Amino acid sequence: MFSGDHILDWQARIDSGLRAGLRWWLEELIGIVPEDWRRRVAGLHSRLLLVIDEHGAYLAVENGDQRETLGRVDLQSGQADSVRRLLAATTQAGRSASPDVVLCLPASRALRTSVTLPLAAERNLDAVVGFEFERVVPFKRDEVYYAHQVTSRNKAARSLSVGLTVIPRSEVEELLRLGQRLDIHVAGLEIAGEKPPFTASPIALHDRERPATHSRARLAIIGLAALALCLGAAAIAIPFVQASRTLDMLTAQVADAKRAAEASLNLQKQIDAEIQDQQALITKRRQAPTITELLDIVTKLTPDDTWLTELQLSGNEIHLIGASASATALLGLVDQSPSFRNATFRSSITQDSKIERERFDIAAKIAPREAP
Q1: Model's pTM, two decimal places?
Q2: Contact, 111 vs 201, CB < 8 A?
Q3: Cα 209–191–61 angle (5° rounding)?
Q4: Counting CB atoms within 10 angstroms of each CB, which of 9, 72, 223, 266 has the fewest?
Q5: Which helix (H) or strand (E) holds 176?
Q6: Domain boundaries, the chain
Q7: Residue-wise pLDDT tens digits, 165-178
Q8: What is the CATH number of domain 40-229?
């Protein structure tokens, strides 16, 4: 029987082997593609950026790690002519880029925070982050756009740190409307990093219409995908199937171990809750004075000119009913006693002329005994 750590170790080895095999296969595949095709496909991956900075905004073309500024855009005027001229100059200069624009915002426009999650949450990170979202940030999910990415993993503590980037939906919608006035189609949103190397955080605009894929890019992708399928079926079909079966078996064993651990944890929580309830009852009983002790306390507290006709106990409250030469003085004695608290009259004092005493009805809270 595999232990949980052995299963996760084997699964990590299989994942690493598959990634290494896939990387080698893609490199070999790219090597047989003609150089002219590779340059064309690389050109199709260029992006148009509308970068917002402290001075306003500017258009730029990005190809890989290279970014070339086309010119600044006046956001206040909202005139689309300047944008059209910059895009026309880009086409005339022989640059090829997607007609859609990615909106780039500075780090100061977004909220960034981090949350620590169990290492197992990485398999279903989108759902876990969505479930924990409103507990971590002071926004509702439908009020913002957000993105998340794993920033670090702690194998010893079996936890991972996830960075959240959040920007209010109202601010993004305003920028998108500005893009419409400038006659540009915003296809994506990125938030600049706060620290070097200033890696951008892409935020998906899920509820917006997705831009149409460029026709040449679509044809190139379809052609490469068909070639990849043919080569992949001949090169790695059998090892992949075997690895998939092993991975499925290990995943099932991990799931069984996880269910057993969760059942054990729930049972332990129930046992701890029962023990805590029992301890609370025992502590409460030890702190409450007995009826015999209460009778002794009341007997010593009551003056000789006072008669008790009735003594009632209700939870942690005692009621003294009777007659006294001075009901007010008796109330003071009860209130000053360390055994009682918050003494008060439940009804008005009445004078009984037959016995020349004042009728009283006093209620007080019973103070718990001090722990030894």
Answers
A1: 0.41
A2: no
A3: 75
A4: 266
A5: helix 169-181
A6: 1-32+236-287, 40-229, 291-366
A7: 888 988 888 888 87
A8: 3.30.420
